Amino acid sequence: MLPTFRQPQLLVTALTHRSALNEHISSSVESNERFEFLGDAVLELATTQFLFDRFPDEPEGSLTAYRSALVRTTTLAQVASTLNLGQRLYMSKGEEASGGRDNPSLLADTFEAVIGALFLDQGLEAVREFLTEHLFPLFEEIQAQRLYKDPKSELQEVVQAKGFAAPAYEVVGEQGPDHDKEFTVEVQIDGRAYGRGTGKSKQQAQQAAADQALKQFSA
After folding, report:
1. Could you confirm whether 112 is annotated as catalytic?
2. 183 and 164 housed in the same domain
3. What is the mean pLDDT of each run of 10 residues along the chain (219 residues)?
4. Residue 40 annotated as catalytic
5. What number of other Cβ atoms are within 10 A of residue 215's Cβ?
6. Are 122 and 166 members of one domain?
7. What is the pTM of this model?
8. Which residue in 33, 60, 122, 127 has the fewest CB atoms around it within 10 Å?
9. Final residue in a domain of this structure, among 90, 109, 144
10. Average pLDDT score over the chain
């Protein structure tokens, strides 16, 4: 459940996809993109402190891997789905028809926007409490299943152990304006496509593609 906002309009803006502005679906005059930008930074800070306090003896490299696993698109999208953010989003009919309410990247972005809105509304401590309830408990599973390992590195190890050359990554699509690009990357192993992933950077999209390929290649 989302916390009660002292300034409800902040939450409305956090739930406003840019496609909603043209159709005047939301009462917000701006999309959630600026809130997402703020929320991304606040989320990283709060997650860093959580891990820093919990693992006083872990080196920087391990903490960085743990943090990446907690704030990656798939994890944030999972929490967003639990909170039913997809169904609460203000978006155009076209965006909805294209599967926007279930798009992992869009759900993760919305979760970050909500974090940004909550920070503006009630400060960092409220954000910590919210994440402690909804995000940080997922770390138990991440740690148990070693999901903090870098998917690209893990895929390369698995592929080469089976006698194949290193995976090849190719950008097969770009969407959005220059300031808000989304890349789609395909990963190929021995000339065959094994996974696709999207992300706001090519590196992020490669990691998502490798994550999908791991499931298929290991099956």
Report:
1. yes
2. yes
3. 96 96 91 96 97 94 88 92 96 92 92 98 98 97 83 84 90 87 93 90 89 77
4. yes
5. 11
6. no
7. 0.73
8. 60
9. 144
10. 92
pLDDT of residue 149: 76
Residue 218 pLDDT = 59
Domain boundary among 144, 173, 193: 144
CATH number for the domain spanning 175: value is 3.30.160.20
Cβ atoms of 189 and 164 closer than 8 Å: yes
Residue 67 corresponds to which amino acid? R
**Catalytic site residue from 36, 40, 109, 211:** 40
